[in-house]
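YM 10:42: Citrate lyase subunit beta/citryl-CoA lyase sequence, as discussed on the call
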Amino acid sequence: MKLRTLLFCPADAERKIARALGSSADVVILDLEDSVAARTKEAARSTAAQVLAGAAGWSNIVVRINPQGTPWYLDDLATLVPQKPAAIVLPKCSAPEDLQRLDHHLEVLEHANGLPPGMIGILPLVTESATALQSLNYGYATSRLRALLFGAEDLAVDFGIAPRSEDGALAAPLAAARAILLVAAAQAQVPAIDTPWPNPHPSPAFDAEVAAAVRDGFAGKLCIHPNQLETVATAFTPSPERVRWAQSVYKLFMDNPGSGVMVLDGEMIDRPHMRLAERILDAAADASP
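YM 10:58: structure's back
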């Protein structure tokens, strides 16, 4: 699953859904949570199921369900699993136990609907409360885990602060949470996905946040509007020079499988460089049509 650009779309807005599915987004997230009012939750759920049922050619539609503990959570799963979403986005994931609970529910529903076990992945938002940050130290693990998602807006509410300063810089607690998530994703050996930028209009601050996400090791970014997709996709696509370097590193180690340290263009290259090269080549492959 390509995870450079993940575009949120309210599941009760058919026009926006059509636009999202026609966009260049790698993943379309049909949202049943924050963007859907309580009175329209059931209608949005039905629409999401219909979209999934009619989108056989779209393998990267996922659904953000309502959080565990809400009256909609189990009905969301029971309605949507038979339609085979690529993954479930789990909001308000505060501990590994939340992930394990969803894993179990998906296993039961897959079996009941004759689907292969483990078919549906999980994309948890794991930084939406201060409590959740502590749990990141304990690690998240399941074969369904596709990535860890950083959410800044709800976390800012929990701290009672604005998420960003006027120049776009994240507030200190959120910047700390962002760093912790990157470590947790590396420990789980899954990609880290950056928080959405709240303004759909282009700006230097948005460009700076996207560039920082690339620099710090995120694999992609959540988006709230199609206008954001091109900037994010371009930033997360390795440059030709970077790809050529990765190809050279990869070839060097393939030609010398017994070596641990070598020299490329006058610089020392070791096994960590090989892992970086593989990541760059994977990102370049994901960027291909």
